[in-house]
Design goal:
The chain has 366 residues and is α/β, with parallel strands linked by helices. Helices cover 39% and strands 20% of the residues. The structure holds beta-D-ribofuranose and calcium ion. Beta-D-ribofuranose (BDR) binds next to helix 2, helix 8 and helix 13.
């Protein structure tokens, strides 16, 4: 629970003070209740990965498919790192590599709700996988629209599914807009996206949120238990060349592919001041597989959908409080502080070495 601050009243404001105190206590209770609801643990669960594969998306999928704690019941593809057609092809290739054609995969939104698509060949390579080769895909996509597959699966497994979005949030927003009833039927949402300490697309915004801020606004305000695995933790969880060599000690198609993707990822981070390559999306899966990897704090997080410099920023209220301002006749006066109930568990700490170790063990099948 984040620190709660109550500011001192100016002298001569005693009646306002006692009312303010009551309001503050009430507000505090509301924040505590909201925090408790957000804090419930994610048990071993069925998951749906919503993805734009994508280098680190591919690694996230492989981690999930090789972790017995989670059962991947579906994959929906969204445009982001690559077009939706390329992403679908990559997802099918990854499932083929993992020998998991039983997992239903559906193509979803071909672009954001209100802006043009911006793919990322610079950060993911032309094929989206950093040039890493996949064996020919023999898995097939289901003939469903991604958001419809999400709705269908959530209704099939009520209260059992954790959504793991690791791309722009367009598919999830479309699903929840079409069928708001799924909010109460989802166990939780653990997404990779956002940041409370600066962006990676620009000064303020992280790619997945920047790619579709209106969709993120819908998802962050839907009212479900949401954990945000943002750059604050993913950029502290870095893969090094030594780690890749450890992975390669168990040769095979899976480790060969993962090593090629990881080397591309490490390469993209060279010269940026980071001591290795981040594999953002895999950490979101890791957080479902082993929730103790993360330290989280409940916060109110809003999505900036306007702003000159900040569109797509996840604006976090770290104290869950805001000034209470009243009109004093000719000007406004701040007379206290209002509680702001949290809507997101923000990941603020990570056990990075444990995650890297777990990733290597799972991919090498230990
Ligand atoms: C996120 O953006 C994409 O480039 C990655 O796949 C990840 O989901 C990191 O900001
Ligand atoms: Ca992604």
């Amino acid at each position: 629970m984040s620190e709660w601050k109550i500011r001192e009243q100016p002298p001569g404001c005693h009646s306002v003070h006692s009312r303010s105190l009551m309001k503050n206590i009430l507000a505090l209770l509301i924040v505590l209740a909201a925090s408790a609801a957000l804090a419930a643990p994610h048990p071993a669960s069925r998951i749906i990965i919503d993805t734009d594969p994508g280098t680190d998306d591919a690694l996230a999928m492989l981690l999930a498919l090789n972790s017995p704690e989670v059962d991947v019941v579906g994959i929906s593809v969204v445009a982001g790192n690559v077009t939706v057609a390329r992403g679908l092809e990559n997802a099918l290739g990854i499932l083929s590599l993992a020998g998991r054609c039983d997992v239903p995969v559906a193509g979803g939104a071909a672009g954001p709700l209100k802006q043009k698509l911006n793919t990322e060949p610079f950060w993911n390579g032309r094929n989206g996988l950093g040039g890493a080769e996949l064996p020919g895909a023999h898995c097939r996509a289901v003939s469903r629209f991604g958001p419809d597959l999400i709705i269908e699966l959530v209704r099939k497994y009520p209260h059992q599914i954790t959504l793991v979005p690791v791309g722009p949030l367009t598919n999830i927003a479309l699903a929840v807009s079409k069928d708001p009833g799924i909010v109460a039927l989802v166990h939780g949402v653990v997404l990779m996206g956002g940041s409370i300490s600066g962006g990676n697309v620009n000064a303020a915004s992280e790619f997945n949120i920047h790619a579709d801020p209106e969709a993120a606004d819908i998802v962050f305000n839907a009212g479900w238990r949401l954990t945000m695995v943002g750059l604050d933790v993913t950029e502290r969880t870095l893969f090094t060349e030594d780690d890749v060599r450890r992975l390669e000690r168990r040769p095979g198609p899976l480790t060969r592919f993962a090593a090629a993707v990881l080397r591309f990822q490490i390469g993209t981070y060279q010269g940026t001041g980071f001591a290795g390559g981040a594999i953002h999306d895999a950490l979101a899966v890791g957080a479902v597989v082993r929730p103790s990897l993360l330290e989280t704090k409940p916060m109110r997080v809003d999505i900036e959908t306007g702003g000159n410099f900040t569109r797509g920023e996840t604006v976090a209220n770290r104290s869950n409080a805001e000034d209470r301002v009243v009109w004093a006749g000719n000007w406004y006066e701040t007379v206290g502080v209002n509680a702001v109930p949290p809507n997101v568990n923000v990941a603020v700490g990570v056990q990075a070495p444990s995650f890297i170790q777990m990733f290597i063990e799972r991919i090498t099948g230990k």
